[in-house]
């Protein structure tokens, strides 16, 4: 594998050993030497020290301890907590499980790779407790090798409906373990065709093998289920969750599945969503469906993760009362408290669908008696297809920091999904992942920062977007301070720049239907997906106030009243919540129409600046990386230009209001 394809595990030689030469030993405590995860940690340490520093410290093993059987999220966090300290010439890594030791090893290697001083960083004992119990990647890989919303080649799990296990599989496990990922779902939530047979003899052996590879890195294997398996592969005529025959079929099936794939940790289910089957067909609730499966898998200590992305995707655009944004809350909130202990509801953010700017889903902070998990998307479906640079960690920081007012204290999204607010049994964060079989895993090399960043943030929510970007650049591209500064400078504003040249003020969409790349202002306006901007010659925006769809009141106060009032609603979300005249004056002092013109011209100009900054790095970064990103920037500029022109022309022609700066609008 080429160095640049190794991403942050490249372990390139370091000029300065930063205190490591004085270390004689590395002591690992908390799990036995015989544990294969410990074995992997040791291999990693040996390689990393050798390749980066040409050192070969002695490894010794400390006390093993009693360990913790993880029965809930808090146990998992406790088990995966690690501490690192230096005493004299011994670097000691300890934890209550082998996985904790592995994470400690990666922490040390990251410190060295970032050219920080080991003696300084660990002078005082450093303890890291994972912020979230579950830190999960969701692959939308299909068994024919395609990836739904994949922008970096084909699947590395499947070719022609077969599961492939090769060198890349283990490398991937190392890669994601090194950033703290402890759970992976390997197939698309839209389970169709061959994927429905994942839970049959056709795939058991390969899945068992895959599960073992992941388990060697502390990663739990999860599968997506076809809710209607009883019909599609079971020969029954129903998938009614209360039907005795259906329950009996699943019991037998699960006994077989867990016997054949012993490392399996559970399932993710997309039901009653975008044409997928679900309990609604039988007049049952989402809770009925989730609980039926959860009760059965409980016997195997497994969990059911149930998605809340349930909405009416056959809306008539003339219907102004139905509101897709409301749907998650309307469908799931009434049953808060009814979901069994081993069910987690996975809540997509935002409430519409991963747009560049949306308010936080009101289910987060709404539900108080249900295990919940946040779902974000690092696959850049609506954020530039890994052609345009769009570093998403600043957005995720905003989501996590959002105050929901669901309790007196500990009421941010980060608090809720960490399990702290409601003492939930399980919780965490999942990302729809952005990897494929491209030479560099993520298409645009800089999109690797989103994969790296998601893992780092899920593990330690307190890290800043800047710190994460800097680690990524130092570990994967260059440790030259100037180069690091430049690339971090490209990554950090990239999300806001993308937002500027695409859809304005939180309204979202305006994308090419189906592909979701490129501008089409009316692309979804008269379609059935519930995704409208409602622009006419007087104004734009969706009225989600008490006079409109009422969505704003799904939030706790004071958020509800803030969003409900155009004078209080933050500018960046104002068209999500309000239908406003083009002449409405924003907090910024600009009118809506002038804001649209200004941000689009600025966004395009700023994208050009980012591209120019990248060009100036020629010769300072690896040629393959340079060329890859340069080629993407060329395409990004075409896209940004097109968005800028189309949006500005569209709104100039709709409103008839000229740009006050007199710039050229077609
Ligand atoms: C996997 C959006 C995407 C679909 C995706 C769906 C989901 O609608 O466009 O490709 O399906 O979200 O999250 O289930």
Topology:
Blueprint: E1 25-29, H1 36-53, E2 58-61, H2 73-79, E3 82-87, E4 90-95, H3 98-113, H4 118-121, E5 126-128, E6 134-138, E7 158-159, E8 162-163, H5 167-177, E9 183-185, H6 201-215, E10 220-225, H7 229-232, H8 244-260, E11 264-269, H9 286-297, E12 303-307, H10 324-332, E13 343-348, E14 372-377, H11 393-401, H12 413-418, E15 427-432, H13 448-459, H14 465-476, H15 481-491, H16 494-501, E16 539-540, H17 559-564, H18 574-577, E17 580-581, H19 592-615, H20 623-655
Helix pairs in contact: 1-3, 8-9, 13-14, 14-15, 16-19, 19-20
The structure holds 4-O-methyl-alpha-D-glucopyranuronic acid.
4-O-methyl-alpha-D-glucopyranuronic acid binds at residues 140, 148-149, 189-190, 270, 273-274, 309, 353.
Structure description:
Helices cover 36% and strands 11% of the residues. It is α/β, with parallel strands linked by helices and 666 residues long. The protein has 3 domains: 7-128, Chitobiase/beta-hexosaminidase domain 2-like (Chitobiase, domain 2, 2-Layer Sandwich), CATH 3.30.379.10; 134-461, Glycosidases (TIM Barrel); 498-542 and 579-655, Alpha-glucuronidase, C-terminal domain (Alpha-d-glucuronidase, C-terminal Domain). The structure holds 4-O-methyl-alpha-D-glucopyranuronic acid. The site of 4-O-methyl-alpha-D-glucopyranuronic acid has 10 residues, from loops.
């Amino acid at each position: 594998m080429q160095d640049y394809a190794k991403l942050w595990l490249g372990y390139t030689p370091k000029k300065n050993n930063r205190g490591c030469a004085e270390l004689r030993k590395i002591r690992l405590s908390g799990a036995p030497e015989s544990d294969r995860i410990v074995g992997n940690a040791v291999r990693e340490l040996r390689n990393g020290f050798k390749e980066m520093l040409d050192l070969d410290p002695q490894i010794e093993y400390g006390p093993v301890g009693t360990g913790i059987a993880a029965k809930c999220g808090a146990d998992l966090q406790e088990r995966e907590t690690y501490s690192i300290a230096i005493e004299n010439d011994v670097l000691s890594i300890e934890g209550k499980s082998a996985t904790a030791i592995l994470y400690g090893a990666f922490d040390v290697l990251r410190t060295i790779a970032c050219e920080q001083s080991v003696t300084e960083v660990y002078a005082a004992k450093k303890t890291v407790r994972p912020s979230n119990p579950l830190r999960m990647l969701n692959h939308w890989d299909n068994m024919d090798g395609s990836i739904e919303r994949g922008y970096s080649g084909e699947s590395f799990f499947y070719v022609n409906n077969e599961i492939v296990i090769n060198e890349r599989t283990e490398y991937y496990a190392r890669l994601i373990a090194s950033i703290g990922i402890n759970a992976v779902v390997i197939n698309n939530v839209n389970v169709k065709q061959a994927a429905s047979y994942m839970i049959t003899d056709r795939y058991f052996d390969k899945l068992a093998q895959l599960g073992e590879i992941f388990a060697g890195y502390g990663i739990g294997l999860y599968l997506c289920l076809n809710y209607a398996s009883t019909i599609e592969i079971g020969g029954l005529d129903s998938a009614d969750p209360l039907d005795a025959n259906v329950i009996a079929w699943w019991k037998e099936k699960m006994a077989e599945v867990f016997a054949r794939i012993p490392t399996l940790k559970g399932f993710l289910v997309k039901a009653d969503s975008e044409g997928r089957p679900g309990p609604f067909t039988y007049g049952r609730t989402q809770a009925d469906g989730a609980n039926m499966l959860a009760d059965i898998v409980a016997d195997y200590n497994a969990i059911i993760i149930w998605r809340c992305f349930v909405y009416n995707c056959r809306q008539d655009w003339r219907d102004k009362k139905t509101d897709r944004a409301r749907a998650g809350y309307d469908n799931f909130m009434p049953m808060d408290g009814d979901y069994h202990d081993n069910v987690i509801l996975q809540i997509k953010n935002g409430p519409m669908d991963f747009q560049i700017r949306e308010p936080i889903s009101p289910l987060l902070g709404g539900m108080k008696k249900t295990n919940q998990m946040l779902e974000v998307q690092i696959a850049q479906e609506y954020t530039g297809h890994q052609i345009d640079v769009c570093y998403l960690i600043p957005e995720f920081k905003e989501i996590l920091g959002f105050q929901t007012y669901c309790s007196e204290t500990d009421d941010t999204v980060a608090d809720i999904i960490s399990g702290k607010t409601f003492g939930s049994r399980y919780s965490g964060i999942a990302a729809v992942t952005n990897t494929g079989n491209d030479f560099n895993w993520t298409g645009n090399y800089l999109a690797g920062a989103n994969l790296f960043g998601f893992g780092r943030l899920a593990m330690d929510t307190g890290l800043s977007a800047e710190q994460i970007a800097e680690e990524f650049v130092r570990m994967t591209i260059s440790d030259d301070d100037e180069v690091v500064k430049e690339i971090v400078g490209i990554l950090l504003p990239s999300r806001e720049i993308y937002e500027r040249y695409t859809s304005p003020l939180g309204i979202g969409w305006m994308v090419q239907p189906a592909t979701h790349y490129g501008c089409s202002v009316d692309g979804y306006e008269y379609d059935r997906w519930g995704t409208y901007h409602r622009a006419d010659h007087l104004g734009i925006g969706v009225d989600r106030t008490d006079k409109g769809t009422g969505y704003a009141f799904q939030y706790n106060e004071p958020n509800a009243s803030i969003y409900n009032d155009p004078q209080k609603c933050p500018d960046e979300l104002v068209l999500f919540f309000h239908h406003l005249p083009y002449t409405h004056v924003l907090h910024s002092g600009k009118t809506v129409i002038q804001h649209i013109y200004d941000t689009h011209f600025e966004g395009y100009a700023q994208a050009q600046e980012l591209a120019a900054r990248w060009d100036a790095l020629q010769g300072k970064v690896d040629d393959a990386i340079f060329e890859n990103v340069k080629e993407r920037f060329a395409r990004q500029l075409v896209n940004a230009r097109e968005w800028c022109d189309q949006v500005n022309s569209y709104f100039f022609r709709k409103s008839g209001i000229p740009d006050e700066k007199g710039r050229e609008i077609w």
